[in-house]
Amino acid sequence: MKKRSLGRTGFEIAPIVFGGNVFGWTIDEKASFDVLDAFVDHGFDAIDTADVYSAWAPGNKGGESETIIGNWLKARPGMRDKVKIFTKVGSDMGVPGHKGLSESWILQAVDASLARLGIERIDLYFSHWPDLHTPYAETLGAYDKLLKAGKIRAIGASNLDATQLDEALHVARAQNLPAYQVLQPEYNLYDRNSFDGALRDLCIREGLGVVTYYSLASGFLSGKYRSKDDLGQSTRGEGVGKYLDVRGMRILAALDAVAARHGASDAEVALAWLIAREGVTTPIASATKRSHVESFAKAAALALEERDIVELDQASAP
């Protein structure tokens, strides 16, 4: 499988990153091990998670996903050398002071993540959300300490807009601090507004790697949700209703047409569109069973033609 350079991190990764938000939520540890094994067996090599995953599930408090990944790495000797681990800091962990991007919290949170993951160094550490109460210089200064201590290898940011990212990059240059090398935005065929335009242009201009989340719009772009009656098919279905509008149906129709021409699934085409999109390094996608991972491999190998991309671009134009 052809690898892609992830911005200026020095990493070369396969064209789909595994989304670990499902671990400890929609699948248990045994099933998580199974899909991770399949993921690596198919030639993929990067896993994305966060300290807060999956605190929203009943009985959870956060850290469940990192713990499962850590247990998997421990149970698979030699696996740590085969995969890149991405995790995040900044979300509200439900304990006073355990949120945001202050130096004191970052230095504490990274050790907790390292312990749950059972590793000595995180490959890519993301600021999960903007923190309007903490100066960029303080956050980047904390990352500088972690980079020098060998606890992380590279840094990224998630959910920043163009103005915020540009300012963070400016502060890094002006104060000789480490700069964000990767952006993780919400981006897919339906949700295009927040990344297309100034933010995408900035990432291309600055040479940032881009790994997209909600790459299948919570499963809507798989094509299995066509009406409100379909929303009960999974625990994620309730978040899909917003896509059931005229534009959403137009996108599904385009996906159906392109998929039929290639003998592919709608999800494979939606991921292939992201992989082919200028400015995107790789999409993040989640799997709950081996067949999903097999579909990832098909998506990574799917070469869309110009007519396919034009059709999808036109159907999804905001």
The value of Rg in angstroms is 19 Å
Enter the CATH topology name: TIM Barrel
Count the E strands. Answer: 10
Shape: globular
Strand content: 5-15%
CA-CA gap between termini:
33 Å
Q: Determine the number of helices (DSSP H or I, runs of at least 4 residues).
A: 10
Q: What is the subunit organization of this protein?
A: single chain
Pfam families: Aldo_ket_red
Keywords: Oxidoreductase
GO molecular function: oxidoreductase activity
Organism: Gluconacetobacter liquefaciens
Brief summary:
The chain is of the alpha/beta class and 318 residues long.
Could you characterize the architecture of this molecule?
This is Aldo/keto reductase. InterPro entries: AKR_Detox_Biosynth (IPR050523), NAD(P)_OxRdtase_dom_sf (IPR036812), NADP_OxRdtase_dom (IPR023210). Residues 15-315 form the NADP-dependent oxidoreductase domain. One of its GO terms (molecular function) is oxidoreductase activity. Keywords: Oxidoreductase. This protein has one domain (4-316): Alpha-Beta Barrel (TIM Barrel). α1 packs parallel to α9 (290-301), α5 (162-174) packs parallel to α6 and α7 crosses α8 (266-276). The mean pLDDT is 97. β4, α2 and β5 form a beta-alpha-beta unit. The strands form 2 sheets. An 8-stranded parallel beta barrel has the order 3-4-5-6-7-8-9-10. Strands 1-2 form a two-stranded antiparallel ribbon. The two termini are 33 Å apart. By secondary structure, it is of the alpha/beta class. It is globular. The chain is built from 10 helices and 10 strands. 47% of the residues are buried.
